Amino acid sequence: MYLVQFIRGFCMALADSVPGVSGGTVAFLLGFYDQFIDSIDDLITGSREKKKAALFFLIKLGTGWVCGMILAILILASVFDAHIYAISSLFIGFIIFAIPIIFREEKNCLAAKKICHSVCADWRCNRDRDYLL
């Protein structure tokens, strides 16, 4: 499991090293964003056992992130200098490819928010109408 967390952190660092791309987006696309956020929360507010588990998770992720960032600085900088348009196009393609994935993952959440907004708007209209009468 250490290797998986290391690779995840490594991928986050590669994304963080590219302007306009977020490591959080990579965490979301790789399916561990909730675990990442929960670990940070557990580190601050969790019980002793949760803090320990969160710390180990974040250390594994962090070592991959540090290695990824160092390699990105060393390698991507020279690649960007030589092939800026090709690399920029590649990352724009990654971003465009991620949009349908994000919509598919968040479809239920977006539908719930739409229902909530329509209910709240309806309540607000009824309240204002009753106030005017």
Structure write-up:
The chain has helices at residues 2-16, 23-30, 33-45, 48-82, 84-132. The termini are far apart. It is flat and about 50 Å long. The protein has 133 residues and is an all-alpha fold.
Radius of gyration (CA) equals: 21 Å
Number of helices: 5
Distance between the termini: 64 Å
Instruction: Report the principal-axis shape.
Output: flat
Low-confidence stretches: 121-133
What value does the average pLDDT take? 80
Key phrases:
90% helix; 5 helices; mainly alpha; 133 residues
SSE diagram, text form:
Blueprint lengths: L1 H15 L6 H8 L2 H13 L2 H35 L1 H49 L1
Helix pairs in contact: 1-2, 1-4, 3-4, 4-5
Please sum up the structure shown:
This protein is mainly alpha-helical and about 130 residues long. It contains 5 helices and no strands. Mean pLDDT is about 80; it is low at about 120-133.
